[in-house]
């Protein structure tokens, strides 16, 4: 392995745009859209084409480095670094703030699902509503 490839996922060429996308995701405390990632790269003084950011994200998803979350509230995909943690989200319909939920309520249903001889391959849970700031504003 070349020296510059150490610490980089095997089988993936290390490029400056890929490093930039990965750096933004490593520093993020919530899932980000491709446009948010692009904006962060620009803020850091780096340059990359928007289309390049999208291609990098799709590659990272394919390689398992990044998780793609399809938010049903606005048909937008969000991305986060795959830290191999099971997460669910509450999404504000007004400001689109995303809150991570610590517990998985779906686990309560698993015994019944297994009793029905259903093999679960995965699940997503998004709860939509209004955050504290937005619920106090007249809608």
UniProtKB/TrEMBL annotation:
An annotated Gene Ontology molecular function: transcription cis-regulatory region binding
Sequence positions that bind Zn(2+): 92, 95, 131, 134
Pfam families from the UniProt entry: FUR
Cofactor binding annotation: Binds 1 Mn(2+) or Fe(2+) ion per subunit.
Binding site for Fe cation: 86, 107, 123
InterPro entries per UniProt: FUR, Fur_C, WH-like_DNA-bd_sf, WH_DNA-bd_sf
Keywords associated with the record: DNA-binding, Iron, Metal-binding, Repressor, Transcription, Transcription regulation, Zinc
Cofactor(s) of this protein: Mn(2+); Fe(2+); Zn(2+)
One annotated GO biological process: negative regulation of DNA-templated transcription
Database matches in Gene3D superfamilies: 3.30.1490.190, Winged helix-like DNA-binding domain superfamily/Winged helix DNA-binding domain
Protein name: Fe2+/Zn2+ uptake regulation protein
Organism: Desulfosporosinus youngiae DSM 17734
